[in-house]
């Protein structure tokens, strides 16, 4: 696809229309809403701030737009959804995560819809799609990040249900969520014959966050400064059989399901941030005067801008190539690892160069390029660190994974 800081989609009229309407909403109505509330990226969000955005985005057709038509969406392809996620990421909006349902909404619920019973759909998930409820996802623990099997949160049988005890961290959207999709280790009885216990099993539960035995605590504030994380503390919290998502033992499959898809779909948001950093740098180089001429007249600045643009174009091209393979029915597993690695590393380099171009103005806390620098630095760790991606790529090469196609 041609290089542009405002990509067009002339070959896809539906997508071109959606992108145009999304840009209008982000830069117009949503920007004005944020300004009226005086919001910054470090504001503490309340439900009363967020719900109007969920519902308005739903009215405009963006909230849950990726879902099938029968669930109120437009059945977008992965490539089309990625284009919208990139636009949101490039907008600079404080509440960008609430437009498509990334934070607590339909995109956060993700693939769990396929595991839900009719009762679970009616009580938990359809209200999320409508912007009436919000959910969070609770998998990570202090000593169980990349090694999720080390989790200690335990589900102990109690009649037909279970008692949950444990402590989850980094539950994004937890501060304003109604329920959590929570993964726990199943308590297994010790074998009576003294043989070693079998492999641990994990299950997924829909946990109401106002239930007895559940405490939602303020989580750590990430370097982005956003107040979107919470700890979920469970102390003998009872969950009934109707709150078990899928079957006993399906927890990791549900929690880590569609990893290739999710890994790829995180990349467009980072690409949007990189695009924003590049666009801000181009504008700054055009308008900033040094020694009686625009900053952009300096060859050193021109070369930085050229390298930033080339890195963005390469990262974007490989991401959309892998998404096209996904849309074609393939599973570009190795390519997804490559995209996550390349996008994360190069998006951060673009943000780093943006700070350098802005000079002292880029070092000021709260300036947009400084914020992008912090956000894109996080992406090198979130959703799987760059080292994890390299391990997987190398393993694919050494073990001779079957090539796609």
Write structural notes for this entry.
The protein has helices at residues 13-37, 47-59, 78-90, 106-109, 118-129, 251-255, 259-287, 299-327, 333-358, 360-363, 368-378, 386-399; strands at 135-138, 154-158, 161-168, 179-186, 202-208, 214-218, 230-239, 244-245, 289-290, 293-294. It has three domains: 13-102, no CATH class; 135-254, Butyryl-CoA Dehydrogenase, subunit A, domain 2 (Beta Barrel); 259-399, Butyryl-CoA Dehydrogenase, subunit A, domain 3 (Up-down Bundle), CATH 1.20.140.10. Strands 1, 2, 3, 4, 5, 6, 7 and 8 form an eight-stranded mixed β-sheet that branches. It has a two-stranded antiparallel sheet with strand order 9-10. The model has no long low-confidence stretch (mean pLDDT 93). The protein is globular and about 85 Å long. It is of the alpha+beta class and 405 residues long.
Keywords:
Butyryl-CoA Dehydrogenase, subunit A, domain 2; 3 domains; 10 strands; 405 residues; two-stranded antiparallel sheet; 12 helices
Summarize the structure.
This protein has 405 residues and is α+β, with helices and mostly antiparallel strands. The chain is built from 12 helices and 10 strands. The strands form 2 sheets. Strands 1, 2, 3, 4, 5, 6, 7 and 8 form an 8-stranded mixed β-sheet that branches.
């Amino acid at each position: 696809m041609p290089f542009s800081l405002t990509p067009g989609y002339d070959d896809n009229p539906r997508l071109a229309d959606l992108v145009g309407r999304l840009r209008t909403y982000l830069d117009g109505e949503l920007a004005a809403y944020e300004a009226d509330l005086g919001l910054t990226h470090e504001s503490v969000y309340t439900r009363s701030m967020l719900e109007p955005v969920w519902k308005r985005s739903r009215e405009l057709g963006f909230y849950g737009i990726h879902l099938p038509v029968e669930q109120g969406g437009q059945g977008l392809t992965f490539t089309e959804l990625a284009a919208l996620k990139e636009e949101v990421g490039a907008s600079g909006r404080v509440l960008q995560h609430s437009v498509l349902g990334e934070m607590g909404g339909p995109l956060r619920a993700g693939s769990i819809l396929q595991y839900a019973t009719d009762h679970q759909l009616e009580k938990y998930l359809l209200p999320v799609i409508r912007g009436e409820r919000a959910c969070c996802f609770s998998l990570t623990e202090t000593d169980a990040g990349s090694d999720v099997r080390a989790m200690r949160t335990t589900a102990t049988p109690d009649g037909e249900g279970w008692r949950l005890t444990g402590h989850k961290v980094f539950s994004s959207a937890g501060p304003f969520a109604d329920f959590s999709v929570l993964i726990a280790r199943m308590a297994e009885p010790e074998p009576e014959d003294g043989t070693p216990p079998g492999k641990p099993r994990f299950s997924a539960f829909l946990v109401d966050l106002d239930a007895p035995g559940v405490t939602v605590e303020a989580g750590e504030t990430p370097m982005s400064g956003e107040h979107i994380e919470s700890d979920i503390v469970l102390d003998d919290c009872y969950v009934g059989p109707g709150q078990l998502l899928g079957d006993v033992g399906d927890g990791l499959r549900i929690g880590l399901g569609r990893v290739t898809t999710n890994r790829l779909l995180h990349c467009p948001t980072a690409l949007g941030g990189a695009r924003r950093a590049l666009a801000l740098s181009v504008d700054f180089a055009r308008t900033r005067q040094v020694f009686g001429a625009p900053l952009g007249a300096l060859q050193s600045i021109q070369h930085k801008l050229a390298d930033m643009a080339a890195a963005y174009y390469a990262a974007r091209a490989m991401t959309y190539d892998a998404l096209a393979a996904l849309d074609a029915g393939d599973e570009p597993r190795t390519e997804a690892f490559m995209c996550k690695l390349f996008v994360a590393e190069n998006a951060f380099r673009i943000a780093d160069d943006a700070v350098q171009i802005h000079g002292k103005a880029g070092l000021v806390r709260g300036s947009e390029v400084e914020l992008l620098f912090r956000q894109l630095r996080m992406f090198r760790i979130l959703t799987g660190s760059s080292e994890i991606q390299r391990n997987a790529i190398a393993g694919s090469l050494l073990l001779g994974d079957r090539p796609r196609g």
